[in-house]
Design goal:
The protein is built from 17 helices and eleven strands. The strands form two sheets. The chain has a seven-stranded mixed beta sheet with strand order 7-6-5-8-9-11-10, with helices on both faces. The chain folds into two domains: about 90 residues, Nonspecific Lipid-transfer Protein, Chain A, CATH 3.30.1050; about 300 residues, 3-Layer(aba) Sandwich (Rossmann fold). α10 links the parallel β6 and β7. α3 runs antiparallel to α16, α8 crosses α17 and α11 crosses α13. By secondary structure, the chain is of the alpha/beta class.
Length: about 425
């Protein structure tokens, strides 16, 4: 078994220093000794066999179960080293064929109908607000922030994200806005409070999120202009001047992309503008990581541009702007991971040690994927006709500057990222 482990990690780890302690107690060294130094241990021979046979699924399972432990460094260090090596290595043709087969199966068998979509959302988003309060910013933004400089705080970067999204939407006073996948309501409230939207409807399938979103609308004095409904996007009617969806498209399911974009076109005013913000693959279509799909986001799929483009064309939507924000999500996840780890004991009291290992792995794997450009973020600006947006992109900076001037400067300690042991974030 040691020989198989040695062959696998020798092909994978070229940079850094990885020490693997096998179930028999052998110590195997890999890499050139530079950069990251980390040590992992297999607790039993079955763990070794499992990882070698199915590393994408079993690495997370073994770490969660305590059968693969990290004795020097962090699991993030280990995953980053492995993913950097995998990015450089050429993928055998048989694995590429297997990936293509899994994508094809997803198109056929992934039935993300409204009932199953609601169940999938509840699996992740209805774990309880106290969990998310451990690592999110005070506005409960659970999607990629927009870092105007690398040292920007998470709080400011999430505000910059809302500003960036609003600028692309070209919100005008009196506009009606639909927010598909509105989460805890922060973006919907921002569009009404600072951008002048007259009527904002946020829809979500999360019972936990909608309760807080509705309370927040009342607290902000916006309950008459901002409403939230527990509703599937397919059930909506009416027309909206602007449509926005941030961090929801990943849950639509590959087999339902056509239905999603047909709904966007049907609900969008003739001169309307839509913005879809989604995690995406920068490469050719591939399957979503099986561990993430099984344990974190069931029913999810990370799209490539070629997954999306045909459905835009068939729906009669024009792609008026496309931006990629992958490095911004790496910084976002770094902040979330550090916040979570600084308050890990609180998470353990809410759940248990196994849950904490699972979420440490989830945040670490996600950050490593964005660091290595394995995945990215697309912001797709859409319209029914090209003339709905200005001729050049200069309007984005102009609008962001105007919106920045409207933002109140809140002078309190919570402007900084949550400190270790701090009270749960206010809603």
């Amino acid at each position: 078994m040691d020989a198989l482990i040695s062959a696998a990690f020798s092909a994978l780890v070229k940079v850094g220093r990885l020490e693997v302690i096998t179930a028999k107690g052998s110590r195997l060294l890999f890499g050139d000794g530079s950069g990251i130094h980390t040590t992992v241990r297999f607790r039993d021979a079955g763990a070794e066999r499992a990882l070698l046979l199915n590393p994408e699924l079993k690495t997370g399972e073994l770490f969660t179960d305590g059968r693969l432990t990290v004795e020097q460094g962090t699991v993030y260090d280990f995953l980053l080293m492995a993913m950097q090596g995998a990015r450089e290595a050429s993928e055998p043709w048989v694995l590429r064929l297997a990936d293509e087969a899994r994508v094809a199966a997803t198109r056929v068998f992934a039935r993300n109908d409204p009932r199953r979509a609601a169940r999938n959302v509840a699996h992740h988003y209805d774990l309880g607000d106290d969990l998310y309060a451990l690592f999110l910013d005070p506005d409960w933004q659970y999607s990629c922030a927009y870092f105007e400089h690398p040292d920007q705080s998470l709080v400011d970067a999430q505000l910059a994200k809302k500003r960036h999204v609003a600028a692309k939407l070209l919100i005008e006073p009196g506009n009606s806005v639909l927010d598909i996948g509105s989460g805890w309501g922060g973006l919907a409230l921002h569009l009404a409070e600072l951008c002048g939207a007259d009527r904002v409807l946020g829809v979500t399938l999360s019972t936990e999120q909608i309760e807080r979103a509705r309370r927040r609308a009342i607290e902000h004095g916006l309950a008459e202009r901002v409403t939230f409904q527990l509703q599937d996007y397919r059930q909506l009617a009416g027309r909206f001047d602007r449509i926005v969806s941030v961090g929801m498209f990943e849950h639509v399911g590959l087999a339902f992309y056509g239905e999603f974009f047909r709904a966007v076109r049907r609900l969008l005013a003739d001169d309307g503008v839509a913005l879809i913000h989604t995690i995406a693959s920068p490469d050719t279509p591939g399957p979503t990581n099986p561990w993430i799909r099984k344990y974190i986001f069931p029913g999810g799929h990370i799209p490539s541009l070629s997954d999306i483009a045909p459905h835009l064309e068939k729906a009669g939507l024009v792609l008026t702007d496309l931006e990629t924000l992958g490095p911004h999500y790496a910084l976002t996840l770094q902040a979330w991971r550090r916040n979570f780890m600084s308050r890990r004991d609180e998470a353990k009291r809410m759940f248990d040690e196994r849950f904490c290992r699972m979420w440490e792995f989830y945040l670490s794997l996600s950050e490593a994927a964005f660091r290595t450009d394995d995945i990215t973020v697309f912001q797709l600006q859409l319209a029914r006709r090209r003339g709905a947006v200005p001729l050049t992109r200069s309007y984005m900076e102009e609008r962001e500057r105007l919106l920045r001037g409207r933002e109140p400067h809140v002078q309190n300690p919570r402007e900084a990222d949550p400190a270790p042991g701090s009270d749960p974030l206010p809603g």
